[in-house]
């Protein structure tokens, strides 16, 4: 049977749109807005960056760019495994941290029913999904106490197998399973998503007979949502993961050009980069759709961890990086918008807008004699949230504030795959413009190493010594 994403006309109807009108002087004024000349002046740097990305991909350093292609068969394997096993379990738990959790959460929130875990009919035979994404003891104990372990599958995600958060969760859940069900039950209740050829988790998985899925060598956590890291939980909860990859492939084809005016990822990167250089380092992502709220969380990690760097590629101290901020429309019109409208001129707002929601809900009529209430009746909530987005957009324009919009024709696996890939490409190019490595995270690693030392991991004694020698706190400054 032909899949809808194999239909060219359907794919084109589902193409994301990037509207950057409100980044230009013609709309928001010359003091803050840009001109076509400003963008054209960046073309040579874009071309050089595009070439550098291509060369890095060819050298095998950007495996995430190949995922839409080389993971088609892997997606089929994951789908078959999920279909064979999902009805055996009432609960599917992901133990991961950062990029090993945020992508899973974003896919689930965007594509499944908002109350998926609470509505049996919405799950259609699929298990409930839980992603703790932290090691808060109260939260984790409460989850483990609630679960029927005999009906629970745990997916442990760690490339190295040494990441403290998921591995501590694994140790604790494994002990609980063994206590309740016996040691022979471990293989039936755990999946390991990890490196194929190295690390502690693959060693454990082989010893325990745990089903494994592999993370490609150069796919970092924040770029891993289209790998088994994100695909396994999506498949277990009924998401069409093949369509998700097809959306990413479609966006890759759109972005396969160095022409900044034809490449939405590159145009977005250039404008965001110019804004930062002009004293606007705050990058707000504001979905006007609740199902996209965790996509903004995914973006926040992508932007912060990729672009916040102390050194450039020549080893010079540069301390660069925009600050990503997540907001939610219409909620944050009543929380953040005042600052965006009248505070410092240091922000760029990116709206996420949905043309067609999965549901249409009419606002009931009532109180016809009260004008301040009755005007709402007969309209739809779809109209209301879209109108509020456009009104906020106009208010930003009136205040000469930079903003742009990414429009989803509808939120489905294909459009979400496009979004993930477009922002991965945006990140790759803006990294080239900053002349930094957008694919490492030395600041994050330093904090991990201190924790390893304090907790007694072999080989990190020197980090414990540094931790113990940290500056003493002045008790007079603790009130």
UniProtKB/TrEMBL annotation:
It comes from the Bacteria. The active site is at 305 (proton donor), 334, 448. Pathway: Carbohydrate degradation; glycolysis; D-glyceraldehyde 3-phosphate and glycerone phosphate from D-glucose: step 2/4; Carbohydrate biosynthesis; gluconeogenesis. It is found in: Cytoplasm. Keywords: Cytoplasm, Gluconeogenesis, Glycolysis, Isomerase. Its main location: cytoplasm. The keyword Repressor does not apply. PROSITE patterns: P_GLUCOSE_ISOMERASE_2 (PS00174), P_GLUCOSE_ISOMERASE_3 (PS51463). InterPro entries: G6P_Isomerase, Phosphoglucose_isomerase_CS, SIS_dom_sf, SIS_PGI_1, SIS_PGI_2. GO terms for biological process: gluconeogenesis; glucose 6-phosphate metabolic process; glycolytic process. It is an enzyme of class 5 (isomerase). One of its GO terms (molecular function) is carbohydrate derivative binding. Signal peptide: none annotated. One of its GO terms (cellular component) is cytosol. The keyword Repeat does not apply. Its EC number is 5.3.1.9. It catalyses: alpha-D-glucose 6-phosphate = beta-D-fructose 6-phosphate. Catalyzes the reversible isomerization of glucose-6-phosphate to fructose-6-phosphate. Belongs to the GPI family. This is Glucose-6-phosphate isomerase. It comes from Orenia metallireducens.
């Amino acid at each position: 049977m032909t899949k809808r994403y194999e239909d060219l006309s359907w794919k084109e109807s589902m193409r994301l749109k990037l509207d950057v009108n409100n980044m230009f002087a013609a709309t928001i004024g010359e003091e803050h807005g840009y001109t076509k000349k400003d963008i054209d002046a960046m073309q040579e740097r874009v071309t050089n960056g595009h070439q550098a990305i291509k060369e890095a991909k060819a050298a095998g350093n950007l495996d995430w760019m190949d995922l839409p292609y080389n993971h088609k068969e892997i997606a089929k394997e994951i789908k078959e495994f999920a279909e064979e096993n999902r009805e055996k379990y009432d609960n599917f738990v992901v133990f991961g941290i950062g990029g090993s959790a945020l992508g899973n959460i974003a896919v689930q929130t965007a594509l499944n029913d908002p109350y998926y875990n609470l509505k049996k009919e919405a799950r259609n035979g699929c298990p409930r999904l839980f992603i703790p994404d932290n090691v808060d003891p109260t939260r984790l104990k409460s989850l483990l106490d609630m679960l029927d372990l005999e009906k629970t599958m745990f997916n442990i995600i760690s490339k190295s197998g040494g990441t403290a958060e998921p591995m501590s969760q694994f140790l604790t859940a494994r002990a609980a399973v063994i206590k309740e069900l016996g040691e022979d039950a471990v293989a039936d209740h755990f999946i390991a998503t990890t490196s194929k050829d190295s690390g502690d988790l693959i060693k454990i998985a082989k010893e325990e007979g745990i089903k494994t899925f592999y993370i490609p060598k150069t796919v970092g956590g924040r770029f891993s949502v289209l790998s088994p890291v994100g695909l396994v939980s999506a498949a277990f909860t009924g998401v069409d993961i093949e369509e998700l990859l097809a959306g990413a492939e479609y966006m890759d084809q759109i972005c396969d050009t160095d022409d900044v005016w034809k490449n939405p990822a590159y145009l977005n990167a250039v404008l965001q980069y110019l804004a930062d250089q002009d004293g606007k380092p705050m990058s707000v992502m504001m979905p006007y759709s609740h199902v996209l709220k965790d996509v903004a969380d995914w973006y926040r990690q992508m932007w912060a961890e990729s672009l916040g760097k102390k050194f450039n590629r020549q080893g010079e101290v540069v301390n660069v990086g925009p600050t990503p901020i997540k907001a939610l429309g219409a909620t944050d019109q009543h929380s953040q918008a005042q600052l965006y409208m009248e505070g410092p001129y240091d922000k760029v707002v990116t709206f996420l807008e949905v043309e067609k929601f999965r549901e249409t809900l009419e606002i009931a009529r009532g109180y016809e004699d009260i004008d301040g209430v009755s005007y709402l009746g007969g309209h739809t909530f779809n109209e209301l949230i879209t109108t509020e987005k456009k009104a906020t957009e106009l208010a930003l324009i009136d205040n000469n504030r930079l903003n742009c919009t990414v429009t989803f024709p509808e939120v489905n696996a294909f459009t979400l795959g496009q979004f993930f890939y477009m922002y991965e490409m945006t990140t790759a190019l803006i990294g080239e413009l900053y002349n930094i490595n957008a694919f490492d995270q030395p600041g994050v690693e330093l904090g991990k190493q201190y924790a390893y030392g304090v907790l007694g991991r072999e080989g990190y004694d020197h980090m414990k010594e540094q931790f113990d020698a940290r500056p003493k706190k002045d008790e007079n400054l603790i009130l």
